[in-house]
Amino acid sequence: MDCYTANWNPLGDSAFYRKYELYSMDWDLKEELRDCLVAAAPYGGPIALLRNPWRKEKPASARPVLEIYSASGVPLASLLWKSGPVVSLGWSAEEELLCVQEDGVVLVYGLHGDFRRHFSMGNEVLQNRVLDARIFHTEFGSGVAILTGAHRFTLSANVGDLKLRRMPEVPGLQSAPSCWTALCQDRVAHILLAVGPDLYLLDHAACSAVTPPGLAPGVSSFLQMAVSFTYRHLALFTDTGYIWMGTASLKEKLCEFNCNIRAPPKQMVWCSRPRSKEKAVVVAWERRLMVVGDAPESIQFVLDEDSYLVPELDGVRVFSRSTHEFLHEVPVASEEIFKIASMAPGALLLEAQKEYEKESQKADEYLREIQELGQLPQAVQQCIEAAGHEHWPDMQKSLLRAASFGKCFLDRFPPDSFVRMCQDLRVLNAVRDYHIGIPLTYSQYKQLTIQVLLDRLVLRRLYPLAIQICEYLRLPEVQGVSRILAHWACYKVQQKDVSDEDVARAINQKLGDTPGVSYSDIAARAYGCGRTELAIKLLEYEPRSGEQVPLLLKMKRSKLALSKAIESGDTDLVFTVLLHLKNELNRGDFFMTLRNQPMALSLYRQFCKHQELETLKDLYNQDDNHQELGSFHIRASYAAEERIEGRVAALQTAADAFYKAKNEFAAKATEDQMRLLRLQRRLEDELGGRFLDLSLHDTVTTLILSGQNKRAEQLARDFRIPDKSFPTGSGG
Question: Where is the signal peptide (predicted)?
Fold first, then answer.
């Protein structure tokens, strides 16, 4: 135990800090970190270096190179920088690299150096150029804050939904502030800057002078400021060598420390653990690292090489050319178990388990002591919790063995926490591996969630490991394996050195009918990569026609889309394709396409009967369908024409169509109707009354009732009404 705590350093009486190595870095850096722009993503994220940046004191002799590494130093991407001068680098919450150029354009790159998009921070920034920039994170996303050459600030709180805000002017500001940072208070982004001995807080409406409470006198300038990982606390380094620590609202002072060094530090970041009462700040100079807090003494480390600090949720990562280390406050459970002469239940249980392995009777003595105090459940829980905070698997196993040993003497200890910790540690140890290079702590893992971790493995194209984790944790397929396989397939379609058939076959063999996988989404990615034929092949595996058809239409494969829609039997889908075809093709080609698809033609006719009668007539003409054409003109004579001449003309056209269709009965009936219409008009003119549109029988009846027996008899003879059908009236 004494050896285990050798790297523990006390800060005051209530907290210990330790620094241990995560990786021995094997990257081949040809320049010092100080000569590069550096950006490292939190939660064990990647590191970006832009070699040979545009420096006034050291002009670049060649084009700079942008390089991206994992946290263990494994190269992920390298590309020659061909764009403009870069002022700042930073990682978004989605692990996209944001490169802020001097002209205000922000270029966005993926983890593997693939260009994603770009956006501009506005014309004012373009005109005045960028002096400095910060990438920060809020609950809404990742933001960018810009300091221009006119000493004005512009920011966007979410680069995913770009809304630029020009911050108010600072009165009398003639030069760049000595230091500044972005704050997030009450869901709003602010800018805090230092001008000489004064601090100013900029929000969207005003510039306010602020004063840190309890600040030591004699300050003439602020040299550095740092915001905590959660944006709740603020640290200020003054030219007097004092470090002021308080709330980010500048309403409460936590402590103040005199480090007796007046030289401005290279970096200053917060180092605090969630739910810990201790607050500490890590300050780095060229060859010195100092941890300060609410204690009269500090912790100091010697830096053998140029180093860079990365603030984390529960500590600070420190990397250099040769090593990558983690500095953090020792968690309470670990402190109680491992500190010298500890009599905590967890410490006794760990000793009991070790003595048990030695087959020593002391194991029983330790165990009885814990049981007499009724602290065995607490001891088991302490060992489980401490195991989660240990980085080395051997110590994790030792603590978990102790917890398992203690559980054997408890009747009703719920196993969930023990099982869950074993699962979590197995996942963490897998992703901490040098070749994976994601050194997550247990606290970071819980904050990040397993779904985000899987997304990050997918982003690194570590599909087999992601699938193994899903299967090990027994995640639902839709959330786990299916989702990862879909991402793998989307990556597979981008491999243009493999033929379309081979890619489609490989994807289908791997995915099969996996639930939750959409072949149409994969096909859409293939189409976006310019591989239309591959997209069509992939759509053949898509069982849902409703997903196939829209993409086929987008790819301008409308005839194939029509076939798929017809196969589905979904009339709404067929109508969608038909309307698309109608707008895409000329009239003749459209009708020819319909002739080859009887079901589509039938549905379109139904549509035209209600919406486009003229188109329906053209369809009948195109098909030489004289029978339907005749019926169409008969309906038209009643629906559209009011003048008798127009109706008769329409009926004549119908009769001609029926003759062409060799339907003499319909033709004769139509001609009889024409004769009846003319007669009815004549009767109305001569006798008055209403005759038009009456049936033949009703016309005769009306004549009889009007006393026009002779006319009725003549009408019966003209239209050959049988005697037994001839109506009789009271006026006869």
Answer: none
